[in-house]
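Notebook entry, structure prediction.
Reason for the run: the old model in the group folder had no record of what sequence produced it. Starting over properly, with the input documented here first.
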Amino acid sequence: MTSQSLLFDDAALLWARAQMHIAEYRREPPSWRFDEVRDLGTGDWLYGATLDREALRVRKPIVSDIANNLVHALDQVLAACARIHGTTRSRIYYPIFNNDERFDEALLKLSKSVGGEMLEVFRCVRDADPFRAHLATLKQLSNSAKHWALVPPTAAIDAVGIASPRGRVMVDVPIGHFDHSDHLPILRTRERLEHWATEILVGMRFSGLDPEEGGDPMTVFISGSRHVATVLTQVTTLSGGPVFAAGPGVF
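New structure, fully documented this time:
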């Protein structure tokens, strides 16, 4: 392993740590539960979905760890590129901007500290990534000064499917429903449903970001991880050392 390739070890370790936290996020209990209650007065069975806000609260530090590790991995990539270029004691940060002009300005400033080939890697990876805006979401999540939260969509649950005696039932959520309520009534029926008859596919998003584009958490994590992994692969290739590989099945 060359001395140059060793410089990217910290970035690779941070990326790997982010993947551990993503796996942890996946293992957390569902944020929703399906409720079944019987109306003793009518004999009807009542079904609904209930949001577990405590589960959302528990996920928040995990999300912060994912964002911090991915963003800091890019900062470590940039620091390593600067050292390869001969730059020392330079406090620089990886350019994460949705705005093209701001990104170009950042690259121009970095040209004093980082070699042109490496800067071109940053540009090409960004240009080729249709989900590059998710990096800005991760950057905002990693900023401890921001107040954000995981919330359900205000417009609708992605899908609530019930194989009821009357056929498949799909339920929309009134706009703003979960701003003031944790429970969504879904169905009243005379016949009790089988346990296998229900399926809830729930969308989540981030709120409190600026600008508030939110985004589904797993989509943000996976696209951000892929972006960082692509940058790492290309800069380690240019450095002449062992090429970084994300490994099969990561995404």
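Summary: The chain is about 45% helix and 15% strand.
The old model has been moved to the deprecated folder.
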